[in-house]
Design a protein that fits this description.
Elements: H1 2-7, E1 17-18, E2 29-30, H2 44-52, H3 60-73, E3 77-79, H4 82-88, H5 97-123, H6 128-153, H7 162-168, H8 179-196, H9 208-222, H10 231-246, H11 262-265, E4 271-275, H12 290-294, H13 298-301, E5 310-312, H14 314-320, H15 349-353, E6 354-355, E7 360-361, E8 378-379, E9 411-412, H16 420-427, E10 440-444, H17 445-460, H18 465-477, H19 491-502, H20 508-518, H21 520-529, E11 534-535, H22 539-543, H23 555-565, E12 567-568, H24 590-595
Antiparallel strand pairs: 1-2, 3-5, 4-10, 6-9, 7-8, 11-12
Helix pairs in contact: 2-6, 3-4, 3-5, 5-6, 6-8, 6-9, 8-9, 9-10, 9-17, 10-17, 17-18, 17-19, 20-21
Length: about 625
């Protein structure tokens, strides 16, 4: 389905857009040399092509920027790269290219959606049922883009009809809309989308439950936007989450890491809103580049890669997942496969998110002849010649070039497909140098289940009944025992659970934003508690024994010594503030802020009279 979504995407008469150098106008202009739109939208294949583009290309710069910016601000990522390290320190500059790219990308999604919706209304001769189905898909994607915008930048412009803005020439004079009205717009649009969409749709496409799931999350977030929690909104969040929980078509994937494999993740039932990518530059923005940004390097992947110094943060490794990165593989243990020292039955999501010394990945390097015995896999042993290693044990060690230069002791697993042959094995396609078909899930069932539990807690002061069942379903997949209400007696516990489940999915920062709406002091407390320091060495030097200062030390002793003598503490603000003074809002792109003077003016109420489906009584 993914290849159909990508390859059938039509960029001409369906109202394709040309990307501007910045989002100064908060939109992209339709092309002027496209075929006559009245000749298009005449059958389902053409309607599907009109919607297909929204599952990939416009999101290209957003997916890259999200990792660079949002995961750093959340305290999840770190690296030697100056930009990533700067995000870790929360000195996000308004001139940063990643911020500009994220903004451009989201406005492109909105412009594409708006233009397609207008063209379908104006030109399609298909049945109302068909028209509504694809309009519903576009409305979900548009809502998702606005949901990201309002949580990243706070008060932002609201554009219901892109063509009207272009025609009026008001691109540079669009003021900001108050957050509360943006959330109302998103809710109204999703309600309409839910009416339009079928309960089941084609593989990889959004359906009615996608709209329900996003509504649950939007209601949960918007519940606190006034400064105190709106119980009616929390009830709505539970209502829509319950619909998803009751639906068995969309259920939890049994194996966590399968969600980020091409063969098992691309059309996975857990994915409520999923972006699909191509293996070739057709166009260039149709590829997932996260593989290159965070893998162990070109010698590891056989294609492009520059991410060996990029990895999970110390806070995520040590404080969230409770790992000691100084533990080494014991090659003298005599076991069939050496196990990491001190490894116990912990949350299996650690291995689905963080690659550490002693881990192995059975869907990487499956063609390798250097793996242990006949089970081909990637075995993460960062050591070269370890003391006590025998010739027989050398086969454990994989490519010497695939060394961890990250200064936290971990590397990434999500979004990485392995080497070229692994990509072929997963989907039959050889990837171009920087391309990957690994899917990106904007919304998953597990996310909605956790929203269900959180909404119940905020309403009642505890979580019980079906919301607790939903929470425990997520825990069960992680290999954890069922929890009781007392285990989740504070908002801290819910945010921690979401961090474990959703890290590197561009969502953990938004948990803090949601909390800040109604309890800014608590949000600051949680952000202040996130450890933002980093070790002063590359862990490959520790693992291969070249750092003599660690000689003779146990893993626990090495950790204590490194914290005392090999550690850099990062100071400064733990949350961003934009140019308008909004806390927990990232600065606007300086290009936008300079070109559009209305961005510096107070946000305004929105005139909903122009939104044909808006009904205040249903919000």
């Amino acid at each position: 389905m993914k290849n159909k979504i990508i390859k059938n995407a039509v960029l001409s008469c369906m109202g394709a857009v040309l990307a501007l150098s910045s989002c100064d106008e908060f939109l992209d202009r339709p092309t002027e040399d496209s075929p006559v739109c009245s000749d298009f939208y005449s059958n389902e294949a053409e309607l599907q092509q009109a919607a297909n583009i929204l599952y990939g290309s416009p999101w290209f710069d957003f997916q890259r920027g999200c990792y660079q910016v949002l995961e750093g601000i959340a305290g999840n990522s770190v690296g030697l790269d100056a930009d990533i390290y700067r995000k870790m320190m929360l000195a996000s500059a308004s001139t940063d290219a990643n911020l500009t790219g994220m903004s451009n990308s989201l406005w492109a999604v909105i412009a594409q959606s708006n233009v397609q919706l207008k063209n379908i209304n104006d030109y399609s001769t298909c049945s109302t049922e068909l028209i509504n189905k694809y309009k519903g898909e576009m409305m979900v994607m548009k809502s998702a883009a606005y949901f990201f915008l309002v949580r990243i930048w706070g008060d932002v412009p609201l554009i219901h009809n892109t063509s009207d803005v272009v025609a009026s020439g008001s691109s540079f004079t669009i003021g900001r809309t108050k957050k509360a009205d943006i959330y109302k717009y998103i809710i109204s649009t999703l309600q309409q989308a839910a009416e339009y969409l079928p309960e089941t749709n084609g593989e990889g496409r959004v359906d009615k439950y996608s709209a329900y799931g996003l509504l649950a999350k939007v209601y949960l977030t918007a519940a606190g936007v006034s400064g105190s929690l709106d119980k009616a909104y929390l009830e709505k969040a539970k209502e829509y989450a319950a619909k998803v929980y009751a639906n068995k078509k969309h259920s939890l994937e049994e194996t966590y890491e399968n969600l980020w494999r091409i063969s098992t993740g691309d059309n996975n039932p857990e994915g409520l809103i999923t972006l699909h990518w191509n293996s070739t530059y057709s166009p260039y923005t149709s590829i997932n580049m996260l593989h290159c940004d965070i893998n162990l390097g070109s010698s590891f992947s056989g294609t492009a890669g520059w991410g060996s110094s990029t990895g999970p943060s110390v806070d995520l490794i040590e404080n969230v997942f409770g790992q000691n990165p100084f533990e080494k593989v014991d090659y003298t243990a005599g076991e069939d496969r050496p196990q990491k020292l001190g490894e116990t039955d912990k949350d299996i999501r650690r291995k689905g998110n963080i690659l550490m010394e002693g881990d192995y990945v059975d869907f990487w390097y499956r063609d390798s002849t250097r793996s242990y015995q006949t089970q081909n896999c990637f075995y993460a042993t960062w050591q070269y010649e370890h003391e006590g290693e025998t010739d027989a044990n050398k086969e454990y060690r994989m490519m010497g070039e695939a060394q961890t230069t990250c200064m936290s002791g971990g590397q990434h697993i999500k979004y990485i497909y392995g080497n070229v042959n692994d990509h072929v094995a997963e989907c039959g396609a050889t990837p171009n140098q920087q391309a990957s078909c690994v899917p990106i899930h904007i919304l998953r069932v597990a996310d909605v289940y956790l929203c269900y539990a959180e909404a119940d807690f905020l309403l009642n002061g505890n979580v019980s009944g079906e919301p607790l069942e939903a929470l425990n379903a997520v825990r069960k997949r992680a290999g954890l025992a069922d929890a009781s209400s007392s285990d989740y007696s504070t908002i801290d516990a819910f945010i921690l659970e979401r961090r474990k489940e959703l890290c590197f999915e561009f969502d953990n920062w938004f948990d803090i934003v949601r909390l800040s709406y109604y309890d800014a002091n608590k949000a600051k407390e949680l952000m202040n508690a996130r450890e933002r320091g980093i070790y002063n060495f590359q862990f490959c030097d520790y693992y291969n024994g070249t750092m003599t200062v660690f000689a003779g030390k146990t893993a626990a002793q090495a950790h204590t010594y490194a914290r005392q003598s090999q550690w850099t503490e990062v100071s400064g603000s733990t949350y961003p503030t934009n140019q308008a003074g909004e806390e927990f809002a990232i600065p606007y792109s300086q290009n936008d802020y300079t070109v559009n003077p209305k961005l510096s003016q107070p946000a305004e109420d929105y005139d909903f009279s122009q939104v044909e489906y808006y009904d205040e009584s249903t919000i």
